Amino acid sequence: MGGFFGVASATADGSSDLLYGTDYHSHLGTMRGGMAVWQDGRITRIIHDITNAPFRTKFEPEQPRLRGPVGIGVISDTDDQPLSIRSRLGHYALVTVGAARNAAELQRDAFQRGVHFAESRAEEVTLTELVAMMINQGTDLVDGIRLVHERLEGSCSLLLLTDGTIVAARDRWGRTPVILGRREDAWAVTMETCAFPNLDFEVVRELGPGEVVRVTPQGVETLVPPSETLRICAFLWVYYGYPASTYEGRNVEDMRNRSGAILARRETIEVDEVAGIPDSGVGHGLGYAAEAGIPYRRPFVKYTPTWPRSFMPQDPNERSRVARMKLIPIADLIRNQRILFCEDSIVRGTQLRDTVRRLFRAGAREVHMRPACPPLLFGCPFLNFSRSRSELDLIARRVIAHMTGQAAGDPPSEAMEPDSAFFEEMCRRIAAELELTSVRYQRIEDMATAIGLPLGRLCTYCWNRCG
Ligand code: SF4
Fold this sequence. Notes:
Bound molecules: iron/sulfur cluster
Distance between the termini: 17 Å
Strand order of the largest sheet: 3-2-4-1-10-9-11
CATH topology of the largest domain: Glutamine Phosphoribosylpyrophosphate, subunit 1, domain 1
CATH class of the largest domain: Alpha Beta
Number of helices: 14
Radius of gyration: 23 Å
């Protein structure tokens, strides 16, 4: 994934806002962080590897070098950003969030036009490089962004810093949010509104799908009006958005509480306590417990002093070790208990099975799992989203392959119909594989109800290929 933040300040220095505003996107990526500021006709940028240290720790000592009234910052899970581009359209810095399904085709096309890529340290041409290449083909920056929206298959929201202004563009289908904020002496643009309250910004409005605006210290000017068709990613609310953030007027924590309450209303079993798998399962669990009138407890606590961020190594063994070390079980809250856990989603299930075994070893009588969304069946083609990167890894797809005897091809439609016998059997097998007492998934229409948007305005591709 990734996230970005920009500030245009009427004072001489917006670097403190930029530092903390960008830092509030740290839950969206763990690989690279970067910032660029404009001052007196010059752009200064700094990029750091944040794999082993939080963004703020790396950048705080650099703040004196980043003084300037206007700047952009990014947390990225993929590439070195911001790029600094000198082209016939001027000197600009660029950050992007998204993914290009047709990256190979765009790259081939660029080579045929004699374009070369030499900017980043990545082994492959990155999304940001491809986007810069397309922007440079426009008659001006706005025409270039129009080309990005037209040609890129996938998703791309971006911030571009040039000549004392920020150009902000939301993805064509609005899959990721881009939100404007105002303070007396500055304007800001963010993906996560949780960046605003502590910096004293107030939300002014969200960009619509495909909208492009120019942000200056004096105000905001629309350069390309929004389109009507919205397909915002439903996973923002279910999993990766920060609880204090709000998109399309719907707060994340509030959605999670509603989602848990809806799950509770459909429940048929009795348990002694409800819990949420930290962190994103907590909001769902609290909503469930409140609705069911069952105590919410914490049979696992996260060791926050040294595991504060969602650090996720690429190596599966290392990932399992990190997941295990982060959570400490409390045997006194587990022994002899029938426990119902709320979780954002079940991906591969490997770490979850380890958690379930530990619960039974600590004396749990029953362990039930209630994911806040339907079974994941498809990889995300729009964002670089780790929850559903490889379809073959998804536990539901593995179970379906066993049930149908077909490892390849699309899953049958019954796998998306919660009232079908096929779906029931699939859940039974998933529970057996994870050694759970039971698993019951949130229905897709209940997920949309919890979000508060019609299904037709959400991207739900991960679950039913509608997006
Ligand atoms: S495919 Fe899934 S993760 Fe990707 S945008 Fe759609 S809902 Fe979000």
